Amino acid sequence: MPDRRTLLASIAGGALLGGAFAASPAAAAATPPRVYTRAEWGARPATGPIRYLDRQPDHIVVHHTAGANTTDYSLAAAFRHSKWIQDLHMDQNGWIDSGQQLTISRGGYVMEGRQLSLRAINERQHVSGAQTANHNDHTIGIENEGIYVSATPPAALFNSLVRTCAWLCDVYSLDPFGAIVGHRDYVATQCPGDVFYARLPELRQRVAVELGA
User: At 73, is the secondary structure helix, strand, or coil?
Assistant: First the structure.
């Protein structure tokens, strides 16, 4: 698949068939968020082989962690939450590692999830996770700290999600209006919560603005 800059050079603007996306020809690449690596937050090693795929994901799946809506927005709290998710996924779910590729804390910190996820994004490839049943080979998942059935995501988290999704859409040449979905769009689940799910149209629109569309 051609990268976004190649698409912009050949098409003046607008959506493309097949989910690829071209923004304004003058648009700059989306600014990547600061992603804290597994080494920085103290991840455990995966207990099995990671499936590193020579392909690109075609959808970004938005999740909530269904954990407490903490008011500790510190980086230390974000690191603790990544460890909590990994322990939950490995020790209770029996998975080899964290299921998602990226995690965003309520304070807006972005962290690498499954092993090799950040490398795969930087190489425009894909690490298969365990975040969306039967769809892990073509979707990249973002866990957002908290539970949003009736609560609103903090501005820091939502703003960070916008930047993160814009970065992923830029890397993988994705149309935010077609590519950004909620977990419940694939699986019968409450996730990412009614309030968060209702804000996905806003998320898509803001990502498109970030991309210069």
Answer: coil
CB 96 within 8 A of CB 41: no
- Dist. CA 38–CA 19, nearest whole Å: 30
Task: Give the span between the Cα atoms of 200 and 114, in whole angstroms.
Answer: 24
> What is the C-alpha separation between 179 and 156, in angstroms, rounded?
22
Q: pLDDT at position 118, please?
A: 98
Write out the E strands in the chain. Answer: 14-15, 21-22, 35-36, 52-53, 59-64, 102-104, 110-112, 126-127, 139-144, 180-182
For the chain, state the CA radius of gyration: 16
Residues of the chain with pLDDT under 50: 1-19, 22-28
Cα separation of 109 and 88, whole Å?
20
pLDDT of residue 29: 77
Phi/psi at 5 (nearest 5 deg)?
Answer: -70, -35
CB 204 within 8 A of CB 15: no
Name the H helices within 69-154: 75-87, 117-122
Q: What is the pLDDT of residue 21?
A: 52
SS3 72: coil
82 phi, psi to nearest 5 deg: -60, -40
